[in-house]
Design brief:
heterodimer; A: alpha+beta; Rossmann fold; OB fold (Dihydrolipoamide Acetyltransferase, E2P); six-stranded mixed beta sheet; globular; B: mainly alpha; MetI-like fold; 11 helices
Chain lengths: 374, 238
């Protein structure tokens, strides 16, 4: 019998409680070899706790962590140097950039010429060679975080774990750090686990995404899967969808559900698990504002969208390069469409204009109401 | 005013000449207080580190007790050590009373709370993620602890200096357990008391100057450590 090799890192039945409160309850989480796995969720979702537990810095109240199929615990010498962590704050040690980058090698007993060579290489990967002799307190925030990344990568860990590494950086520095992370981390670390509250950051970097909600895993999937088939209303909302909370299932047909969201409006939506829904059940629907196509009331949009709603423009709000157009149907349903400025100009709409909103059924998702915390 | 100027002039002359009596007293003071601080560090530093790093029930009370130690009256410590070491006391058979060893014990008791209290604050001020970060880079628990203490080193240095400053200038405890015996247990503070009573103002002044210089050095070191810590805290704001 051929057995498949154990996953690189596996967490099984992890529970962590702080006093009476359970902050983490994860049945099963796997980090595969060579992948970038993002753990995404809002504040308080348990991301940082799972980060510390996977990094063997904190002991869970129940469950176990396996590295290459072997159970490992905090303080386990066997795991030392195989995992490396980068924190939200760079937490550099007093000394020079070089001292900091050399730390992990010193800690794991790599000395002499080998250490010098590897430190030089790591400094070079992240364009830090010119800063090698600088005391760390003279570095900017972005430089400090790059030093923290070099300090973790120099040990060429099997898994590099990062906890919100860009959240303390300003926008331009953040972009540079993400580029560095993408460029170097995949080459120098076996696998990468990125913990972030920023879904877009996760979508840009990860092969798979774990969405966490109140200490539990809401969905594990590829970025495409999460975007196109969100598992719960929470996942949809986290990735930028808008929710329509007051729906009722009218009918079910071949993976689609007709959801009545007001006395006059029925929308067709994709359903993930039709067995969980029955006609008459309360439902939540979600749509992405960029999936709404607007047409001037009289004109027809070039779309085969099944869902069509007559509405009036309530507000037009520019957001950077795009524009949010809020529309309201006659019976008070409010939807938001995200259009390019050019599209808004072409439609020549303004507040009060009559429009028709078109939406494909596959761009709408519906779930039973109980899947969503109201 | 002439008395002051004349005494000061004579004191400087004694110091420059390296007066044997003055020198002996100064050296014994440094030896006694230096040893006492080492002992105080051995007692106080582990307590400071442990309380600074750990959260436990009653921690606030322990910290309050340590801080109360800052205000321990030297004569009360002197009395306590005297009773311990007196013939009838539990440690009477050691026959330490009126020896430099007894003075070291009394001053160590005075120094330990300073060392514990100030090192506690220094250890506590280091962000906890330094230790976690070291562990997250493969450090053993001991090395991770060392990295944390290393970040607190200025404050720990300040704790040692403050302990020395507290004991070098105290008179009550050493007077009681040392007895101010010439050539044996006479230190600067007890000598100043005696020489002033005898009217030897110049000798008292000479030792007073040395004490002032030491006090200045101690405070300069503390200020430096404090400034360093402020800088370090600023650095951590990013």
């Amino acid at each position: 019998m051929v057995t498949s090799p154990a996953p690189l890192l596996e967490a099984e039945g992890i529970v962590r409680r702080y006093g009476e409160r359970t902050v983490l309850d994860v049945d099963h989480l796997v980090v595969e070899r060579g992948e970038v796995l993002a753990i995404v969720g809002p504040n308080g979702a348990g991301k940082s706790t799972v980060f510390r537990i996977l990094l063997l810095l904190e002991r869970p109240d129940a469950g176990e962590i396996r590295l290459d199929g072997r159970v490992v615990r905090p303080g386990d010498a066997r795991a030392r140097g195989r995992l490396a962590g980068v924190f939200q704050r760079p937490a550099l040690f007093t000394g020079t950039v070089r001292d900091n980058v050399a730390f992990g090698l010193r800690a794991t007993g790599v000395g002499g010429a080998a250490r010098t060579e590897r430190v030089d290489a790591a400094l070079d990967w992240l364009d830090l060679s010119a800063l090698a002799g600088r005391p760390v307190h003279t570095l900017s925030g972005g430089e400090a975080q790059r030093v923290a990344l070099a300090r973790a990568l120099v040990i060429e860990p099997q898994i590099l774990l990062l906890d919100e590494p860009t959240s303390s950086l300003d926008v331009s520095v953040r972009r540079r750090f993400r580029q560095d992370l993408e460029r170097v981390a995949r080459q120098r670390a076996g696998s990468v686990v990125l913990v972030t509250h920023d879904a877009l950051e996760a979508f840009g970097l990860a092969d798979r995404i774990v969405v966490m909600d109140e200490g539990r895993i809401a969905q594990v999937a590829t970025p495409d899967e999460i975007m196109l088939r969100p598992g719960t209303p929470f996942v949809a909302e986290l990735t930028g969808a808008e929710l329509l909370l007051q729906g009722t299932i009218e009918a079910l047909d071949d993976g689609l559900a007709a959801v009545r969201i007001s006395p006059d409006v029925v929308l067709w939506a994709a359903v993930r698990d039709a067995r969980a829904l029955t006609a008459g059940a309360a439902a939540v629907a979600a749509y992405r504002p960029e999936d709404i196509v607007l047409a001037a009331a009289a004109g027809a949009a070039a779309t085969s969208a099944i869902n069509r709603l007559a509405a009036r423009v309530e507000a037009i709000v520019p957001v950077g390069a795009l524009t949010r157009v809020r529309i309201r149907t006659a019976d008070g349903i409010v939807l938001t469409a995200l259009l390019t400025r050019r599209s808004v100009d072409a439609l020549s709409i303004s507040a009060g204009s009559a429009v028709t909103a078109h939406m494909k059924a596959t761009a709408l998702h519906a779930w039973a109401r109980e899947t969503h915390r109201l | 005013m002439d008395l002051f100027i004349e005494s000061l002039r004579e004191a400087v002359r004694l110091l420059l000449r390296g007066d044997r009596y003055v020198l002996e007293v100064v050296l014994l003071s440094l030896r006694v207080s230096g040893t006492a601080v080492l002992l105080g560090v051995a007692l106080g530093l582990p307590v400071g580190i442990a309380v600074g790093l750990r959260q436990f029930r009653g921690r606030g009370l322990v910290i309050a007790l340590i801080h109360t130690g800052f205000a321990l009256p030297p004569v009360v410590v002197g009395l306590f050590v005297y009773m311990m070491l007196s013939r009838a006391g539990p440690a009477g058979q050691l026959e330490m009373l009126f020896t430099p060893a007894a003075m070291v014990v009394a001053q160590a008791v005075l120094a330990a709370p300073y060392v514990a209290g100030i090192s506690l604050a220094a250890v506590q001020a280091v962000p906890g993620d330094i230790r976690l970060q070291a562990s997250a880079l493969g450090a053993s628990p001991l090395l991770a602890l060392w990295m944390h203490l290393r970040e607190a080193r200025l404050g720990i240095g300040a704790a040692v200096v403050a302990g020395f400053g507290a004991v070098i200038s105290e008179v009550g405890a050493v007077m009681m357990v040392g007895g101010n015996i010439a050539g044996e247990t006479r230190v600067m503070t007890t000598a100043i008391v005696l020489e002033t009573r005898r009217g030897n103002f110049a000798t008292a002044f000479a030792m007073g100057l040395i004490l002032l210089a030491l006090a200045f050095a101690v405070n300069a070191a503390l200020t430096r450590a404090q400034q360093g810590r402020t800088l370090a805290a600023e650095r951590r704001t990013w």
